Amino acid sequence: MLRPLAFIAIAAALATGAAWAAEPASGAPMAKDGMFVTAKGMTLYTFDKDATPGKSVCNGQCATNWPPALVSDDAKAAGPWTIVVRDDGLKQWAYKGKPVYAFAKDGKAGDKTGDGFMNGAWHVAKP
Q1: Where are the domains of the chain?
Q2: Is the pLDDT of residue 7 over 70?
């Protein structure tokens, strides 16, 4: 009896984790309704602890909760958009030197539930 329940619990945990995976790499984020969003319309955020321009300090569990906006292989930096190489070797978009991230708890396009999170350290990324 416990074996099937354990399997169901593991499968549910894996399925839930997959729902919060980062979007596939893409071109530079776009502005919509006064903020930057992913290709799927998910809100992007900046993190105050990313104090050194061009450097992301959001790794490990932080990057699970705040998936980085990944750069596609053919994308090029342009204007205020630059490319940051993360500690894990992945490439991430940065706006004016600040890396941008989605938030795993935003359930649909346009959600902004991460704004002000962690005592105000996370902010909606705006043009």
Answers
A1: 2-124
A2: no
